[in-house]
Amino acid sequence: MSVFDAHGPAAARILELTWLLIGVSVGVYILVLAATLWALVRQRRDSDDTPRTDRRLLDGVTAAVVLTALTLAGLTLASERTGRGLITPPGRGAITVDVIGRQWWWEFRYRDVTPSDVVTSPNELHLPAGVPVVLRAISRDVIHSFWVPQLHGKRDLIPGETTEMRIQADTPGIYTGRCAEFCGHQHAKMALTVVVEPVDRFQEWIQQQRRPAPEPMSTDARAGQQLFMTSTCATCHTIRGTQAGSRIGPDLTHIASRRRIAAATLPNDAASLEHWIRDAQTIKPGNRMPSHDLSTADAASLVAYLRSLR
């Protein structure tokens, strides 16, 4: 998560401003140290008490004040120029994605002309490389802040308001983001993953995500599906193609295709998934996912079902 490793136009503008601020600050620091050192080693002279010296010192102080004011004005203009480039309402992007912040996870909703084709990807934002994308930022509870330092600056999500930002990733890869505004007890565990892929790979991913959940094939997975549909799981989560259609928690239609779970708190493997189902309140106290007291067989079948949802 380094701002010095920019992989998008917005991040590049921020990096340019960062280097400018660092360069000016280092230059001023060196000048101040040099002036201080000179004052310490210089021997006092008889001519220091003359009116001519007083005028020369006054001219020097005036020049320093003017130079300082011009430097601050230049930095202010550079900062304003960079900031305006980040907050100016964007034009049309090739794709529009709703970024929805919740305590404490992210929902990314890919818009489509057909409502039934809208794709939801919790905590994992997929972007096509080199393509501008408009993000519509919304909060469902408190103020959050979307921040992926290698791609863009911070953008606050304000309850009751929708703000837009234009993001573009030039290099395929995996990038990490965070909520950058304290939003409650589990703010530190509200991360996100950005997956940047070539356009053709991104289109394949979108098509895959539009499909309903596959039917379970194994005996354990079928038992897990039955348990999911008859327990509290179905009252909070959506699995498209089944009767589970609640939007309280993340969409689980293709949960097995994601890299991490619980807002990037845990790796997406069988052991972590079972740990999260059994003891979510220990891992992330205060979140809306209750811990479940399951038998070993029930836990195994539920994990088998969720792991089949690719």
Show the helix and strand layout:
Blueprint: H1 9-41, H2 51-87, E1 95-102, E2 105-110, E3 119-122, E4 124-128, E5 133-139, E6 144-147, E7 155-157, E8 163-167, E9 173-179, E10 191-197, H3 199-210, H4 219-230, E11 260-261, E12 266-267, H5 270-283, H6 296-307
Helix pairs in contact: 1-2, 4-6, 5-6
The number of E-state strands comes to 12
Distance between the termini: 28 Å
Looking at CATH, which topology of the largest domain would you report? Immunoglobulin-like
Q: How many H/I helices?
A: 6
Give, in order, the helices and strands.
HHEEEEEEEEEEHHEEHH
Contiguous low-pLDDT stretches (5 residues minimum) are none
Based on helices, strands and strand pairing, what is the structural class?
A: alpha+beta
- Overall tally of structural domains: 3
Q: Tell me about the biggest sheet?
A: 5 strands, mixed
Q: Quote the average pLDDT.
A: 91
From the 3D coordinates, which CATH architecture of the largest domain would you assign?
Answer: Sandwich
Q: Biggest sheet: strands side by side, in what order?
A: 3-2-1-5-8
- Considering the protein shown, what is the CATH homologous superfamily of the largest domain? Cupredoxins -  blue copper proteins
Give helix % range: 25-40%
Question: What would you report as the Rg, rounded to the nearest angstrom?
Answer: 27 Å
- Broad CATH class of the largest domain: Mainly Beta
Strand content: 15-25%
